[in-house]
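Internal QA ticket QA-208
Title: Verify multi-chain structure generation after dependency bump
Assignee: T.L.

Test input:
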Amino acid sequence: MPVVCWCVLVPLRQCVALAVIGSWIPLMASDYLTEGNDPGRTGWMKDEKVFTPANVKDIKLLWKKRYESTFAHSDRTVYHTLCLGGQTAVPAMEQVSPGEYTIYAIGWDGRLHQINAADGSDVAPPDKFLPPNGKPYALNVVKGVVYTATAQGCGGIPNALYSYHLATRRASTFLPAGGGMWGRRGAAISPEGVVYMVTGDAMFSPQAMSLGNAIVGARLDDNQQLQLVDYFAPRNANWMRARDLDMNVTPMAFDYRGRKFLVGTSKECRLWLLDRDALGGEDHRTTLHTTPLLCNDDQAFDAKGVWGAMAAWQDSRGVQWVLVPFWGPVSRSFRAPIEYGRPKMGGVAAYKLEETTPGQWRLNPAWLSRDMDMAEEVVVANGVVFAYGSGEDTTQTLPDIAWNEPGGPWVGGGLNPYSERRILSSRHATLYALDGQTGKELWSSGNQITSWNHWSGLTVANGRAYLGTFDGTLYSFGIPAGARQ
Amino acid sequence: MRRRIVHSHTRFAALAATIAAVVIVGGQSRGNPTEWPTAYADAQRTSSIRNDVSISIETMSAPGFELQWKTTLESPVRHGVSLGPGVITSGVNIFTPLSTIAAPSNQVFAIDNDTGNLFWTRGFAGALAAGTAECPGGISGSLTRMVSLTPQDPGPGRGGGGRGRGSYSSAVGEPGAGVPIPARGGGGRGVPAPATTPPAAAAPLPAPAPPAAAPPSPVTSSTIPPGQWRTSPFPTNAAAQGSWTGLFRPSGVVYAVSADGMFRTLGVVSGKDLQRPAQFLPAGARFSDLIAVGDLLYTSTSQGCGGAADGVWAINIPGDTKSVISWKTNGGRPLGSVAFTTSGMLIVAVGPGTVTPGGYANAVVALDPKTLAVKDWYTQPGVEIVAPPVIFQEAGKDIVAITTKDGRILLLDADSLGGASHAMPLFASASLTGGAATFAAQSPAMWQQRAVPSGAAGAPAACQRRKHSRPHAGCSSRSRAHCRRAWELGETAPFRVGHYSG
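Actual output:
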């Protein structure tokens, strides 16, 4: 049963209602129960059987439906673009018994809801987890514990990792003393139970116990309290802070050929390949491999860099792939063996994880996709890479306007991230299906999606791909039943 | 492999809030806030940066200062010159430190100081004549931003992220009580306390609070208001940027004069003309480094190039109607860029030449900044001035330093150039070249060691060290004589001379 709580902004009851859509799908189908599909946040739908590289050319718009998703403010709290209130964390689900699923969601009031996916009823009373009006990110549920992370200090809540133990109802937090922890897919959790998350702009100074612009790993101790176990920061972490190049992307934890890897990236737009057994090596700043820039030659803090969610998958030959969506122009220095143009607005790059010499691991470029308008999350299903361009105006500063241009003159450069401006200049989202081996475009939604989206996320399961847009419309693209044969 | 992890532990020390506040305030600066808004750094042309977060004796004594990047700009050499000096804006698009550089090829380049990447380039229309060494054509003077008359210590950096939150920590709550939120910053710095569960009473769920990052009230609309503009958008950078502050402050403008003599106001974000270009100088004029003070932009012209008389020129910056004023030397040619005293008097050095009635040569002339009328001057037979002036303050007085062809440095009281006779400097050094060489025709540099407080009333601070109350104890042997002479003269401080040839 797929989770289709695609939109982090819809009221809880509607999200729950949406979660039960598709319950007719036969048993033995694949589940997509959490952002990125697994605790490690790899975005790999291992169990997908319907989509194939051969049939995705037949993808059609199966249906679209518009949902009212206005959040009714119930108090006098001031909401704005960064602290928007409402339900911000993508829910997660667990199969509690054959055919029975529980949805975990955090309401605007910070309470954790446990809901029966079959009928929307409460499985347990909503319980205190976070203070209200925070900005938690996608939930991750592992071994009876719900994890999330928060950003922007919304609601006065510190930027931190949080856990809620379902059995004991004890909630814990780890505060890295960094900036916002705003990785799209929330925290990643390794098989060892370590919770990894990026920290946004703040000073990196371990001596001062400040872990800004870093990847931190924490784990619950016997007291069910999150404790720091490891961390990594790139050598230019504090320069990245000066340029507002946050660590902003959920890292991916996966194993390959007996090694425990973690891959991270950021707005700076390069990848860090890390060993989970010693994150960052002796000095916490050494990678297994740091790639050159993939994008963002300008090192701009907005509209360029990696802002979406990566994917990691293995093909039938055992090749380990890492996929990276990005915003803005590809780097002038990035070259891949297969390229479908030189993206200007964004795209997806594929790397192969290779052991070039014994013990020496590298991420080597394999292919570069076509141009995509602000490429966001990537999901891989049965050798097909699904990616989408959000079409959003992602600029956050005003441009100069010449004296003889319409609206001019205007002295640009000041911050203006507000919706009123960006909504007007946003385009429309486009969903793509690419060949996982080559990056070749196999299908796209073209102009069928008429609105854009902001961090809405992509869900893929059972021959369907779901994408929500700013206007409250949920699109379901898939292989018509007749074409599945 | 043993790696050090300082485990976090829950602490609720009362000190934490104070420490966190300090961290947050300290964290307001992101990049290096130092700017270089005009040629030679400031209105006094001191080539001196008073504070820099990265450059100090200590940091320069350690390894690490090295070539970070180099980039080649497509700027054809014209008569030996390819690029002029740049001006630096620390926070373009909030976080980018940017150099804007004028090139004789009638182009302006904007370079990201961190990466060397070309941010934008602007080429001005019109074919350039071949020119000569004396009259090369093209852009001959560097760009400028608006300059304060009084030296500014760099303030906090743009951006104001500063989201540091003290020290890392963790906490766990009681069953059903939700997560306890430690005070901002968790615990204070120091030896971590054991991991403990705070008592429930100490960990209440906070009441709903307004967002921490609410935008400032001046921004009421995020759309660009059509047609909305102030009547005088560019009197100063601050005014051009409106009343917005911090992240919301626009990046500002840089002023240029193109080869056709047009005055241009370029947005530093794009290089676009943000004002209608206005004729300022004759096309082909050879003009010095620009400087913008108050409502006016100034330069000097020399060699009579393009038919522009040797003199000082100014154009008003605000408004659509531009008026140009000028002052002719009727004698020598202006030596490089003009400077300003802290009170706003324009100072120009004039080289040798044939003087017509009312003219000046081998002189330092003070001009009224609004009218360019002569207010004062210094000239002395036998003294040939070779470089633009540098001005510094000592004990509240502006002192004009100039260099002479025979290798001497002259100090003039800016309030009375040359005294009643217009021919008497405050101080004249011995020839630093021994008469065998001359100073280059470039502006000297000047710095003052302000950090050491004066130990004796009235003593020049730079001539002392804290441990020695005796004047001159802190001076090098070479500068000690200067100190002594300055001390005897009264208030002047020692200075260091750059651009020394011979």
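Spot checks passed. The longest strand of chain A covers residues 346-357.
Status: verified.
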